Amino acid sequence: MQRTMRTLLSAAGLVVLAAALAWAAQVMSVQVRAGQLRDKPGFLSKVVGELEYGDQVDLTGEQGDWRQVKSLGDGRAGWMHFSALTEREIVLNPTDKDVAAAADSDELALAGKGFNKQVEDQYKRQTRLDYAKVDEMEKIVVPQKYIREFLRVGELGGDR
């Protein structure tokens, strides 16, 4: 009876160990043009770094929709929203240098998701919307300190 119990406990321990190793070794890729690393899990928390499209990270934690990651390239660590990551490895081969030279990082990120200039042009022809203002708005970057101040002054809970 004791031998059976020890065998069961050993088996359970191996399962827990295997699960922990699988979690610790989970590598993901950044699937957005510029993935912001934050000090805490939240869109309004301080940005502590930025990773580029295709950079690989090791998943070290999880809280809701946020993943705690560590860059495999330079070791920077922080929190990223799950939507900025994919389990799929994104590789730009050395033979892709010509493509990289001809495409900016926005186009590379969109191509990784199945979009390209032809798809965008076709969609624009099928709709009557003018995207010029959208294109202008996408270029606006509001620094995090201004967003936090806006939330603080408006008492909107920006301390998260």
Automatic annotation (TrEMBL):
Keywords: Signal. Gene3D superfamilies: SH3 Domains. The keyword Repeat does not apply. It comes from the Bacteria. InterPro entries: SH3-like_bac-type (IPR003646). Residues 36-81 form the SH3b domain. Residues 1-24 form the signal peptide. This is SH3b domain-containing protein. It comes from Pseudodesulfovibrio mercurii.
